[in-house]
Specification:
Length: 775
């Protein structure tokens, strides 16, 4: 069989269009008779794969409301899609009422799905017994288990892994043509039409992914490693079963649990758990039992997803025993994240009284003290945490932050600008470290305390801070991706600056929002904090004399959150790091460049970045690094400590050794110098693209976040970006990097030309800013 051609119909734009992240769904055909089997299938999937929660498409030709409710109770991401079996009348052979025939036609409806990249079908008479990660990682073709009894050229029914190239109008048309011609077999062993079309051309999976019951006749045990057990045949376990298959049917009955027993079993299962499943099952379990330890687990999942108020709402009403330190710590964390600081202190002091949770509790207490401007108390609490655990990183960094050298004296307030920013400490993210200075360079060459009054965005903006700001000439806010819900959670604004609407409205000097980005990942939401964020955002725009965002993607996102009458105030201001050559005093392009290629990968929020594709990404990077190593020395450049992981993983998994440049340890001049002297930067972090670009160095972006695509669109070079999910990432990265290196002078000139366009925008905005500030 030849590969199916791509549909000529206009495609529906997927939600993941910018990042290329694969959308995966499971799918089953469900009717009332097979509903008991499907409910047990859902339970078995969650218990055997507790960290997997993809969308589940339920195709049906009519389900009762109570059946729909029972299904929803077992899966938080169900999509019900009703099908019309009547449109198969022309080749149904008068047997539409037979479930097996209707199920065979369900396959035809699965191929009509257009909003997913991978669809995995599961029959309702299956139970999942083991990890399905191998199926979720498949990227090519149409995969199935060959039939065990009837030859390897046919696939077995029930389990299919279908990739996007088969989810097309052209392939559906071929299925329909064969169906109408009637040149196929359709029986209980056979997918009929599909087998006739494929004629053996499919990716063959191991039998453990569709292990048919008939192989266990005589009460044979289920082999170890069986991932999916399929109860083929007429007699189903929920209908009384069939003699001779006791060992197999015991596996089904072990998963046919009551709601309470299922929830308890899921919570008790070991290993990582998916946020959506843990919240879905755990919340119901906690409401039923008021179990504190279960509530702690669910609240921690809420916190990890930035759902801080949800964590408070779940855990706060419960009576937590005084000596249960861990739940007190989690509740304290949630309370401080919604700015209920006094309540948080009480919970954290209770947690700190027990040695095994004392270090993180003291770390959070120290953070609360620092947020309120009490460096002395923060240092004392951090030291207490270190006395319990000398290796505790958060306490060590807080102690360094609050006991470091005294900041130099500032100049007269009347000649200064106040500057709200995220001021990164030593060993922090290199991009965030460079940003405040880069913003200040856009206002003049003096970036020090003579002209600037620093306001750390994460510290509480109180009456004293307001008085200090109003004594200055103006207030600059930026740069960086400050619009994100979880980097520095607070209940006052819902974004990184910890400021209330009331105090924001009382700032009476010009407010200049400069090159801020909307940094939420795909799949990341503001939860219950959205209302406060929208209020704060609107107040900020109303208050601002200048509101500049660093890419047009952020502009579109923010305008969507504002009333129409404020849209005109949102304007484009590129990140100042992208025009470094224009801003830095006395900048000189390097006379010669080192023959190096610098590679950066990011690992914060890895699940949102990679999904199930990290192994694929790493393998493709190994291919590219090996090929590019023949043209230049490839090095890993780490903006943050965790960025070194790519070097470790490439060595462990592929035997490739990369030197590591610890840029998190560099000062700003050293960061710019390294990026100016290399030939090419391949980066995943936003500023692993923008900083080298600003230094005049060619870049290729590894896109795992929309902001990378936003920037490349702004400079009209989308071809400089490749999704980390790209099926041919290694080959395409090698090809594009080779092209940029082949005529390096032309590549550098192209960067300079693109940068000049950003500089024109920056200069035009600078003229407006001078008018606003009166000079």
């Amino acid at each position: 069989m030849t590969m199916p051609t791509t549909s000529t119909a206009a495609p529906v734009a997927p939600a993941n269009a910018l990042t290329g992240k694969r959308r995966i769904a499971f799918a089953s055909f469900v009717d009332e008779n097979y509903l008991p089997g499907f409910l047990t299938l859902l339970r078995s999937l969650a218990l055997s794969n507790p960290n997997v929660c993809e969308d589940f498409l339920v195709l049906h030709d009519g389900l009762r409301p109570d059946s729909v409710a029972r299904i929803r109770a077992l899966h938080p991401r169900v999509d019900f899609r009703q099908v019309d079996a009547g449109h198969y009348d022309t080749y149904a052979k008068g047997d539409q009422d037979n479930y097996l025939v209707r199920k065979a036609y369900f396959i035809l409806d699965v191929f009509r799905v257009r909003d997913y990249d991978t669809v995995i079908t599961l029959d309702t008479d299956m139970v999942v017994l083991d990890d399905l990660g191998e199926l979720l990682r498949l990227r090519d073709g149409l995969a199935a288990v060959p039939q065990f009894f009837y030859g390897q050229h046919k696939l077995n029914s029930g389990l299919l892994v279908i990739q996007r190239e088969y989810l097309t109008d052209a392939f559906c048309a071929e299925l329909d043509r064969v169906g109408r011609a009637g040149s196929y077999e359709l029986d209980k062993h056979d997918q009929g039409i599909l087998n006739a079309v494929l004629d053996g051309d499919f990716v063959q999976l191991d039998a453990r992914f569709n292990f048919v019951k008939r192989r266990l006749s005589g009460d044979l045990p289920v082999p170890d490693g069986t991932a999916i057990l399929h109860f083929t045949g007429r007699h189903k376990p929920w209908q009384g079963g069939e003699s001779g298959y006791g060992e197999a049917e015991a596996r089904w009955h072990a998963r046919n649990l009551s709601e309470a027993a299922f929830h308890a079993a899921y919570l008790a299962a070991g290993g990582a758990k998916h946020h959506d499943l843990l919240v879905h099952y755990g919340t119901a379990h906690v409401r039923r039992t008021a179990d504190v330890d279960s509530a702690r687990k669910v609240a921690a999942a809420h916190i990890a997803a930035g759902e801080y108020q949800e964590a408070v709402d779940l855990l706060a009403p419960l009576r937590i025993p005084v000596d249960e330190s861990w739940p007190h710590e989690v509740l304290g964390h949630a309370l401080m994240s919604v700015s209920r600081y006094e309540e948080a202190r009480a919970e954290l002091h209770l947690a700190a009284s027990v040695p095994n949770r004392a270090a993180p509790a003291y770390g959070r207490l120290a953070q609360i003290a620092w947020i309120h401007g009490d460096d002395e108390e923060a240092a004392r609490l951090a030291l207490q945490g270190l006395s319990v655990d000398p290796t505790h990183r958060a306490n060590r960094l807080m102690h360094l932050r609050t006991t470091g050298p005294t900041p130099p004296a500032e100049g007269p307030a009347s000649g200064q600008l106040a500057h709200v920013a995220f001021y990164m400490e030593h060993q922090g993210n290199a991009g965030d470290k460079l940003l405040p200075e880069s913003v200040r360079l856009a206002f003049g060459q003096d970036t020090g305390p003579e002209r600037w009054h620093s306001v750390h965005a994460h510290r509480l903006f109180d009456e004293a801070a307001l008085e200090r700001v109003n004594a200055r000439r103006g207030l600059v806010i930026g740069g960086g991706g400050l619009f994100i819900p979880d980097t520095a959670p607070n209940g006052n604004s819902g974004w990184q600056w910890n400021v209330s609407d009331e105090l924001l409205g009382r700032i009476d000097v010009p407010v200049l929002v400069y090159a801020v980005g909307f940094n939420a990942f795909d799949g990341q939401a503001y939860g219950h904090g959205r209302k406060q964020f929208l209020s704060s955002l609107r107040k900020l725009v109303e208050t601002s004399a200048f509101f500049g965002l660093r890419n047009h993607g952020s502009i579109d996102k923010v305008r969507d959150l504002l009333p129409p009458e404020l849209h005109h105030k949102v304007r484009y201001q590129p990140c100042p790091t992208t025009v470094t050559r224009q801003l830095a005093d006395g900048w000189r392009d390097p006379a010669e460049r080192e023959n190096t290629i610098l590679v950066n990968a990011a690992y914060d929020r890895a699940g949102l970045r990679f999904g199930h594709d990290y192994g694929h990404f790493l393998g493709e990077m190994a291919t590219a690094v090996t090929a590019l190593g023949e043209q230049a020395e490839v090095k890993c450049v780490a903006h943050a400590l965790e960025d070194e992981r790519i070097a470790f993983d490439l060595r462990r998994e592929h035997g490739i050794s990369l030197p590591v440049i610890p840029m998190y340890d560099f000062d700003n001049d050293a960061i710019r110098d390294v990026y100016a002297r290399t030939k090419l930067v391949i980066g995943m972090r936003g500023h692993a693209g923008m900083i080298p670009f600003g230094c005049g160095t060619p870049i290729i972006s590894l896109i795992s976040h929309p902001k990378m695509a936003y920037f490349l669109a702004d400079i009209e070079r989308p071809e400089w970006g490749i999704s980390v999910h790209d099926r041919h990432l290694g080959a395409r990265l090698t090809e594009r990097a080779t092209a940029l290196l082949a005529d390096h002078a032309a590549s550098v000139a192209d960067v300079h030309g693109r940068q000049q366009e950003l500089w024109k925008v920056t200069e035009a905005n600078a003229a407006d800013l001078r008018v606003i500030l009166g000079r």
